Every structure is written in structure tokens, then in C-alpha cells.
Amino acid sequence: MTTTKTVRELAETYFTAWEEGDFEALRGLLAEDVDFVGALGTASGVEEALAGLRGLGQVLEKIDVKVRVTEGDEAITWFDLHTSVAPPTPTANWMHVEDGKVTRIRVTFDPRGLLAGFERQN
Length: 122
Known about the structure:
Elements: H1 4-20, H2 23-29, E1 30-38, E2 41-44, H3 46-57, E3 60-71, E4 74-83, E5 89-98, E6 101-108, H4 112-121
Parallel strand pairs: 1-6
Antiparallel strand pairs: 1-2, 3-4, 4-5, 5-6
Helix pairs in contact: 1-2
Domain SnoaL-like: 12-105
InterPro entries: NTF2-like_dom_sf, SnoaL-like
Protein name: Nuclear transport factor 2 family protein
């Protein structure tokens, strides 16, 4: 079992790397077979997950973490997702860690603001 501190640090590093656009650091945190399910899509494997993070990263301005809770191998991060295309979006991210790598991610938020913002861009 991964310690709570390690899971917390991994979650913190994940969000910092994504906010900074450091996709090599993100790659090192994700298991090869990471499974992602979110409001805007799904991804199977590290390459698909990174592609999704890069895609949203193109409009990402800031991740304003409100609270992070960890228990065992689980971390939940509640944050406001600030983008260039929509008002801040309250978001919940759950991740599961095994052997020091993120193996599962589930993200939920109301996607209407982001979808409308993407439409305006096109």
C-alpha cells in the first residue's frame, strides 16, 4: 500500500506539472495502463491520457485547489479549473495509486461552460 503522504505528494505533483505544462513529469506519474474517465471523454493508457491533458492544457490558465483529501491509495482534489474559454469550473478529481503510479482517474464537473467556450473558438 502507498502511504497517504506519498499519495498526497503525487496528487500535488500531478496538478503542478499539468498547470506548468510539464508533460514529461506527468508521464512519470501515470501508469502505462492508466484509465481515465471524465466529463469530456475517456482515455486508456498513458499516451491517450497525456493527449487529453495536453488538449485541455491548451486553454488551461490556472488550477486553484480548494481541498485535497487522501486515504490509503486514493486522493480526491477539489479545485476551480480556470481556462481562457470559460468561467472558473468547479471540478472534482479522484485518483487511485498503485506502486507509486496513478492507475485510475475520474473527473467530474459541469462541462457546459467549457463546451460553449470551445464552440466560440471554432
